[in-house]
Every structure is written in structure tokens, then in C-alpha cells.
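BUG: 3D viewer hangs when loading the predicted structure for this chain

Environment: internal workstation, default settings.
Expected: structure renders.
Actual: progress bar stalls at 90%.

Input used:
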Amino acid sequence: MKFMQIYKRYLKGICLLLPMLILAGCNNNSSGTDTGTLAAIKERGKLIVGVKYDTNLFGLKDPATGDVNGFDVDIAKALAKKIFGDENKLELKSVVSKTRIPMLQQGDIDAIIATMTITPERGKQVLFTDSYFDAGQSLLVKKGSPIKSIKDIKSGVRVVTVKGSTPAKRIRKMVPGATVLEFDNYQNAFMALKTGKGDVLTTDNVILMGMSRQDPKYVVVGDNFSDEPYGIAVRHGDVEFADYINKFLKEIKSDGTYDAIYKKWLGIAPPKNKENNKSQ
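C-alpha cells produced before the viewer hung:
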């Protein structure tokens, strides 16, 4: 009997203490103290971001210098500067469409900034920030090709694209009879088009623009036939870090940093009426 009285007093004490602990935790978070991923990044002393190494304009490695440059790389540098006050406190890791989510889930990287389209399916695996860039699926062909738009993709046409990408899934759905050839990365896909293994290459228009700049014998044709809003991806459930990045995106769009990055890599000012300049 005496034991039960002591046990009840113990439970009562726990019940009284628990709300105080929860309240203290809430007050601690509201004080601006960094927790979770952001705290781990600061303790480590660098931000680790997955970017593409094979995508001209967004993330391309220079074989001569080993440097990786592009739109996404500059966004990553701006985020490192936001966190540390120093854009050089950044480590870039190479990702492709099929490896970026596993690398994020395994903790190899803190975030994905790699021409990654926001989709409901991917949203089950990662947490996306607001869109930071609007692209659209299009086609790349050799000059003189009879293919001028998506309407010219018929049964038997060999369509080159990249494994694990939304364009690969979309082209199969839109043209069931097309022969879809998937490659590990954009360099291999572009080489397949150049060597005649495929008739047309499909992916996001801005990625195709980068390929065309590399080799002007290849041109982007037809209108975009999809909307591809790019988002920065963090681990699923990491709401605090996603909110931090969303605030960062709003800041760089309001202070001119985003516009400067856009003009640097695309050669034009970002369209103000597009979603890449709004929160989603």
C-alpha cells in the first residue's frame, strides 16, 4: 500500500513537470537558438550540398581546374554565406537524378540544389522548399532535324533522356510508342544524341540551352510542354531547415542577389510574373 502511494506521488510529479519541460523547449526554440540540421551544419563548420557536375549553366565541372560552376552552385554559395557569412564554407558533392535522393536520405549531403523538379511523388521522400526556378520540358535536336516539336515524336522515334528524371516518365506517358533511351547523366545522354544513338534529347529547356551553347550544331525546338518548378530538397520532416531556406530565398530575391545570379547564367533578368519569384 505504501508503495502504491509513493508510485502515485511519482506519477503526479511527472505529470506536473512534463508541461513545464515542453514549455521550456518551446521557449528555447523561440529564442532563436539553432537546432537540428542547422545546428549540426554550424557545428561541422561547413554546408554540404549535392549539385550536378554535368549540367551546363547550373552545375558543370571544369576538367582543367576541377571547379564546379553554375546557377545552382551560386545559390549554394549564397546559402553558405547566409549561414556562416562566408560562401567558401561549402562542400559540393556530385549528384545525378538517380542518386540525389538516396544521398540526402543517407546523410551524405544537407540539401539538394540540382535542377530538381518539385513533384508529389518526390515530396513523399524529401521536403521541398518554395520553388527557386521555373523550367519546362522541351526538345534538343541536331540542326536540320525533321523533329520540330512534341507532335513530331512518333512511334519508333528514339528519345534520349536521363535515368530517374521526370522528363523520362513524361515522354513515355505522352508518346507510348517512342523508344526511350535512358542514360546515367546529361553528358552521356548528349553524347548519345551526337553519335546517332538517338533522334532527339528531352529534358528541361534550360538544361538543353546549356547543351546548345556547348555545341551550336544542336538546337532547342518547339514550345515547352510541361512546367518544371525547381525546389531545394532537404530531408523529409526537416521543417525547421526548410523554413530557414525559404526565408533565405525571399531575402536573396528582395536584395538583388537572385537577379544577379539569374542574369549571370541565363543572360536575362528573371521574369517577375513567374513562380520562381514567389512563394509557393
